[in-house]
Amino acid sequence: MRRDLNGEEMIEFxxxxxxxxxxxxxxxxxxAFGVSKSTIYRWKKxxxxxxxxPAALRxxxxxxxxxxxxxxxxxxxxxxxxxxxxxxxxxxxxxxKELDMFCKEIGIKAPSASTIARIIKWLKDRGEILxxxxxxSLYGRTGKVDISNRYNIPIIEDSAQALGARYKxxxxxxxxxxxxxxxxxxxxxxxxxxxxxxxxxxEETAEKIRALRNHGRIKGTEVMMWGLNCRMDNLQAAIxxxxxxxxxxxxxxxxxxxxxxxxxxxxxxEIKLPPPPVENEEHYDIYQNYEIEAERREELMVYLRNxxxxxxxxxxxxxxxxxxxxxxxxxxxxxxxxMFKKALxxxxxxxxxxxxxxxxxxxxxxxxxxxx
Length: 372
Description:
Blueprint: H1 7-24, H2 26-33, H3 37-49, H4 67-86, H5 96-106, H6 113-125, E1 133-136, H7 146-150, E2 155-158, E3 166-167, E4 170-171, E5 178-182, E6 196-200, H8 203-212, H9 234-244, H10 247-265, E7 271-272, E8 283-284, E9 290-294, H11 297-306, H12 334-340, E10 343-346, H13 354-369
Parallel strand pairs: 1-2, 2-5
Antiparallel strand pairs: 3-4, 3-8, 5-6, 7-9, 9-10
Helix pairs in contact: 1-2, 10-13
């Protein structure tokens, strides 16, 4: 829709649309002008009902913008810009949940995800948001990318934990112009040492990555740029090649265990579970890890370990910005910090037996059934 035209120019534009629709049909007009079918039909009816008077096509004057809406926009935009300045190296933007909490604190309605995306695109068009944006697929779930694609926001996918995961039928790592996977030993597909992979459909990016991994060399001994020594050992590649054939079976077993946890723990009100492995949903999760949010986490951890169940608190219970050496002391992410106070990883790997899973479920229920 052309919103940059004045009254007379808009009349002329609408007449052109109507004429093209009469001679070449609605579908061709829609493609040519980017106007919806319903809008074209509405303009034709307006023109006909007025006795084919072009003045009837003059757009109605718009109501003045709600000043409170402008205040809301400015606060949200400033918040996003402030959060970017807290992370100058990557130009990151805040998480949706963090923005929701910010809006609640200052007493305004939180914007939808699509509104945030429009604001980001507006800032990007003004050169105020760095390209590209990083989308992280955590614990085997592919992050939603509809909005980034809809507003042409370039993405690099951090799919290190999501090999085999899908979103709306599309595999993790294939939504942006580049995606990466980790083959660290603890991953769903793990090598016997450090290894990883980058995927891209951009030939220029692929050539640069090939050079960066090999001291800046592309072919022969000619160095084209500063590079790194990040070549995967042939032995690790051979091990991964064998294990890759078993990955689909391993993923299904992970999903079976996640389903057992869901069915066994869903009524324990003191814990929050990750989304269950439901078939025919948007997400196909591989459950790289199974992390819960638990009340009295430290007590629960000690209780389970005393019963021979190994559980883990990731990163010692601290988010990245809470490590003093990283110099991010001025960053405040209340939702993230709250989650890290409760997060606890339960055992989940393909070799885990049904009996062992039931033992974990029983032990957790037993803990919370006791008086604190």
